[in-house]
Amino acid sequence: MDAVERLLVSVGHARMTMRAIAEEADVALGTVSHFGTREQLVEKCIKRLFDWYFEEFTALDLRNADDPKQAFFDLVRYIVDDLESVRTSRLFPEVWAMGNTNAEIQSALDWLFARERDWLEGHLRDGWPALDDAAVRLIIGTLIPMIEGHVMFAPSHRASLYEEIKPADAIIFWLNATLERLESV
Question: What is the radius of gyration, based on Cα positions, of the chain?
């Protein structure tokens, strides 16, 4: 699975072959074929990766933090900063593209984003308990695509929209302004 992930990052799904997986894993081609088709290997790799991300979310649960507002911003910053890594910024666009034609991968994406949504909603409610359900859904429903869409401009391998602005700072600025506005209404 590690070899599949490394190849998804380095050459992408379209150029990844069973032979390349075998070479990357330093095993015989027959050994790789024993684990199924290329698509089955990719699906297993993606599900394993998403399990890892979910464990990361759980480990970062700051719901009992002294300052729940700051904890929420710290969690958002963690996600955005991770998106700037070469691994994540190359892997997720590949996974999104595969999800368009592979129901198993789309199901795994849906599972991951539902966990992310629930996790962020819980932390948002801790910091801003006066927000009603509609406001929470609106904020998180805007925040997740904003965060995930940022990967398309992640500076690890693409030109940044604004070199001098850190994406995490921009997203947190928007969040803070939105939440301050909602608190004042």
Answer: 19
Residue with tokens 């695509």: 145
In three-state secondary structure terms, 182 is helix
CB 5 within 8 A of CB 49: yes
Report the Cα 161 to chain-centroid distance in Å: 20
Q: Which domains does the chain have, with CATH numbers?
A: 47-184 (1.10.357)
Give residue 36's region: left, alpha or beta (phi > 0; psi -120 to 50): left
45, 103 Cβ separation under 8 angstroms: no
Verdict on whether the full-model pTM lies above 0.85: no
CB 131 within 8 Å of CB 182: yes
Tens of pLDDT, residue by residue, the chain (185 residues): 899 999 998 998 889 999 999 999 999 999 998 888 898 999 999 999 988 888 887 787 676 778 889 889 988 998 888 887 888 888 888 898 999 999 999 999 999 899 889 989 999 999 999 999 999 999 999 999 988 887 776 655 555 566 677 788 889 999 999 999 988 87
